[in-house]
Amino acid sequence: MSILNKVLIVDDSQLIHSMYKLVLGRYNCRIVDVMNGLEAIDTLSRENDFDLILLDINMPVMNGLQFMEKIKKENLYRHIPIIVISTEGKEEDTLRALKLGAWGYVVKPFKPHMLYELIEKVVARKPPYLSTVKSI
Length: 136
Fold this sequence. Notes:
Layout: E1 6-10, H1 14-24, E2 30-34, H2 37-46, E3 52-55, H3 64-71, E4 82-86, H4 91-99, E5 104-107, H5 112-124, E6 132-133
Parallel strand pairs: 1-2, 1-3, 3-4, 4-5, 5-6
Helix pairs in contact: 2-3
């Protein structure tokens, strides 16, 4: 298993935050969670040493795609891998997220092993991290 030190969770659902914390428990990493893209940008302005961002698309204030557009313009944040995890499984959303730099796209609901597998590929920097994972 690869090392994962710090993860930013960006999702407007407290239930989803709890679920991700359970999934990430095996990594014994520090988790910072926020409720929308604007809060995530504020967090990144104070701390930019994240190893991974788990990002939802549909959120109030600033959605996930708007967040990605904004941070991908900043050299400080461009290197942070993003896995989009969303109920939006439309092909255009997936393609747009991948074009904006997402390292993976998981459709909710999903099984934990799907996320583990993608996280391991991202952390190990092993391709294919641009493949999408859809639940069955």
